[in-house]
Write a structure and sequence with these properties.
The chain is an alpha+beta fold and about 725 residues long. It contains 21 helices and 20 strands. The structure holds CIS-heme D hydroxychlorin gamma-spirolactone 17R, 18S.
Amino acid sequence: MSKQSMSRRGVLAGAATIPVIEPAQSEAKAAAPSPEVPSINKTVQGNGGELHPLSSEISATLTTNQGVPIGDNQNSLRIGERGPTTLEDFVLREKITHFDHERIPERVVHARGTAAHGYFELTDSLADVSKADIFQKVGERTPVFTRFSTVAGNRGSTDMARDVRGFAVKFYTQEGNWDLVGNNIPVFFIQDAMKFPDLVHAVKEEPDRGFPQAASAHDTFWDFISLMPESMHMIMWVMSDRALPRSVRMMDGFGVHSFRLLNAAGKSTYVKFHWRPELGKQSVVWDEAVKISGADPDYHRRDLWNAIAEGDFPAWTLSVQLFDEEFAKSFDFDVLDSTKLIPEEVIPLRVIGRMVLDRNPTNVFAETEQVAFCTSHVVPGIDFTNDPLLQGRNFSYLDTQLKRLGGPNFHQIPINAPRCPMHNFQRDGHMQMSKQEGRISYNPSALDGPNLNENDAKGFVSFREHVQGDKLRVRSKTFSDHYSQARQFYMSQTKPEQDHIVAALTFELSKVETVEIRTRMLGHLVNIDDSLAKRVADGLGDTDAIVNAQTEIKARSDLKNSPALSILQNAQPTFKSRVLGCLLGEGADAALVSALRTAVKSAGGTFKTIASKIGGVVGSDGSRIPADYQLDGGPSVLFDAVAVVTSKKGLEELSRKVKAVEWVNDAFSHLKVVGLSPDAKPLGDMAGVKKDNGIISLSAAGMDDFIVAIKGGRIWEREPQVRPA
Ligand code: HDE
């Protein structure tokens, strides 16, 4: 027998397997104990069962799921060296079977998500209006797990789609889990849960062709929308910059529906929940979003992960808008209609707490994928309203989790398990993980056994609401105004923000092949605002007269503008947590690079270098300045502001590269602040850079102008020049 055939290939001599003689080096390494292995085994063990006294001896050994030590993890059991594999090979079959079942159904919507652990700290007590424990004691911290998501795309789609973002928070309170399953936009497309499957089918990839992925710019979406006037307010939001967040750390969150808070006396106060990012809101421009999708489709998840890993913990304030029945009756719109919001100028936000995300998941499947949010997960002191969307959601989420997670015991998966005592007489079921002992599995019982009883003082009690009426399939007339708040949103935007809405509608509708759908949409836009419709029609090259869509209620023009609805009117100058990309040429002024790095860091930002080679460049003082990105892998779309530092010699080399010219041109056309060292100016000229407030000459002697400029964000005045209407 040759030496080779005696190796770990598992040869048969007669009926007996010849034992391993010469394990390959890598195999020996795989089998050798390493510090990580025991903990892996422990996790696999993970059923709470006690270890057999002998098993510690083999704790570094790979085992099957039954705990059987595995002798060979490289080769399947076969007949003869080149023969067929045996059915008997339970090690192979178990491993492959488990692998085949690794995926669970992805979420039909919100499939692509990223999440983190953290805490919520109460800063203002709501004890007068809610008996919920989480709202009582100022300073009390409640653990949370928060998942951000896009809606339309599948799990592997880009983070940068134009889309609503999910903002779902699971609070592990002392009285059970409360899930606030919100979005980054305060209104929704539809008014009744009945329409949700239609909406989602319309926006998802078209079923006959399987595309487009993660995009609303196609016929079925706009066909549906153009037949659903109730979606117009939401359409204004999703065509705005809100649908293109720069980072999930820089976007709002909203509970959307009106909920109820109940105090100890059972008194109800309506509430709307708002999350506000402490880093301020920031969006990207559309062309940037498209290019980031190519450069880094994981842009948002990487950003969140890195920030938390580096200790730069994102935080949001939680605010409430509180109101009573009297306000609800007097308000211009129905507070049960999720296509409407209550402007902050009408009911100001009261800040009650702060959420900080300070820990990344350690296993995306176990945590981000298996987390099961349900709107029906509320705690005593928080209750529902009759919003027909919320009522439908209360059914849908639980139903979804049963399908996705496979059975009624999904609350036992660690990420979903409450962190407070939990006991009842629900028993058994698929994947029951606990040993539910004893004779008593019912209530009431007078036998010896667990004596669990309801508690009407502490327990969940629904708001006592008087409800009476005929059983009907109707939509309340109070839900009929579809255009007024759409108009109010559009009117409340700054000029650049309005331009973006026009551009987004023009882009999306230009992708619609069926002319009638485009015409129908223009009929809705003209109901919102004449000039909006005309500008979009003009952008589409549609010269026909626009015919108003039929409507019972015309858009009101008496609603006051709400500056709170605009991102730009609320922007605070800051470079905190933002990134500066510095393109380096050979011989770059080392003192200038160092001054830039220091200034950016002291403004709270991150400094990244980009060079033709990942090895970096040799600076003016002869020392090597390493690069964080090679030019092709570090396009300027990945940075909030840019600088180019080069010598004359380095300039020559950079100018020959289309990529370097494109790098500067993109930054300029994405309205970024561009800092240029004296020798970098010709590269700016080649890239079409024209002098404005955002084009700064860099000098090691003074960084102040540059830092003030980058804190200001984008140079909006440049936009008409680079993207004329
Ligand atoms: Fe959801 N939604 N939704 N939704 N939704 C789901 O639940 C549904 C709605 C939202 O990170 C699903 O576990 C219906 C509004 C978020 O895991 C599903 C209706 C808002 C997430 C579902 C709505 C949301 C979901 C899919 C109309 C903002 C992701 C997977 C009545 C307030 C949570 C899942 C996570 C997920 C149903 C409308 C937010 C199918 C029927 C309005 C953030 O159950």
